[in-house]
Write a structure and sequence with these properties.
The chain has 139 residues and is an alpha/beta fold. Helix content is 45%, strand content 19%. The chain has a single domain, classed as 5'-nuclease (Rossmann fold), CATH 3.40.50. Strands 3-2-1-4-5 form a five-stranded mixed sheet. A hairpin with a 7-residue loop joins strand 4 and strand 5.
Length: 139
Amino acid sequence: MPVDVSHFHIQNVIDTCSIWNLLSSRLLYRAARSAECHFCCTSFVYYECLHKPRKNHASEDVELQDRFRGVHARREIETFDLDVEDLQEVSVLERRKKVSKGEPSSIAFAKKTSQSFLRARKSISVTNEVRVELYRQAQ
């Protein structure tokens, strides 16, 4: 399903991949900030970004981590905790089969706070294009 990029939510819960995609382009990040987009993540996503051990630690990773530390320190991407009960919802746990561990925490927080969840997911196609998917809790 194609995404209409002209319509978007300005408050979004984001996962690790979305953070990396957002921060990897200074132009995209500035555009999002000038459009008054606000982003937040869960404590687990924060852990994934900065503390989770990596197989390969490239200089690009270090640069993105430094950028994340900066925007986090300025509270441009805020971090929030979840309760265990938030993660015990069946619908969130069912999605766990094909997602990273940070994604269910982001979905649960988005549902809890009635916000959008923005994730970036690599397509399985040969071009390996990045697809942006928006999730919005049904009221």
